[in-house]
């Protein structure tokens, strides 16, 4: 049987590289591990870490096609981040101009969560531990 060790990274293609770079670093607090411009592809690749762990590869490409994200499209549904205090996290996002959905409660765990979106409307979730 295949023995997976962990999720290595999540790759995200954005339509506005500078806006997404600001969002993931200044709004969500990811740190930059490396930034590379690949001239042959007219593409940036930004390696981002959360709490020191490599997590996201942010890519730019010329004119990427839109991907349907709602309602409940097939494929990746959302990316979820764990937080210890949902109310504080929501307030921090709202102060930075990020709109969050009303808080929901997971019917199986009793934990609270909310959704918001990145600059390309990629659905993101905050899940309270």
From TrEMBL:
Spans traversing the lipid bilayer: none
Protein name as annotated: VOC family protein
A molecular-function term among this protein's GO annotations: metal ion binding
The keyword Metal-binding belongs to this UniProt entry's keyword annotation: yes
Gene3D superfamilies tied to this protein: 2,3-Dihydroxybiphenyl 1,2-Dioxygenase, domain 1 (3.10.180.10)
A Pfam family of this chain: Glyoxalase
Keyword Metal-binding: yes
PANTHER family referenced in this protein's UniProt entry, alphabetically: FOSFOMYCIN RESISTANCE PROTEIN FOSX, LYASE, PUTATIVE-RELATED-RELATED
UniProt keyword annotations, A-Z: Metal-binding
Domain VOC: 6-129
Protein's organism: Spirosoma telluris
């Amino acid at each position: 049987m295949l023995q997976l060790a962990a999720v290595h990274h999540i790759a995200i293609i954005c339509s506005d590289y500078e806006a997404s770079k600001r969002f993931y670093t200044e709004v969500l607090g990811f740190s930059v591990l490396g930034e590379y411009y690949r001239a042959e592809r007219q593409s940036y690749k930004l390696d981002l870490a959360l709490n020191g762990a490599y997590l996201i590869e942010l890519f730019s490409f010329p004119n990427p096609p839109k991907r349907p994200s709602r309602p409940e499209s097939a494929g990746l549904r959302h990316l979820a981040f764990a937080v210890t205090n949902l109310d504080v996290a929501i307030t921090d996002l709202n102060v930075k101009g990020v709109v969050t959905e009303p808080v929901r409660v997971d019917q199986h765990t009793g934990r609270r969560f909310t959704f918001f979106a990145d600059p390309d409307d990629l659905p993101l979730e905050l899940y309270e531990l």
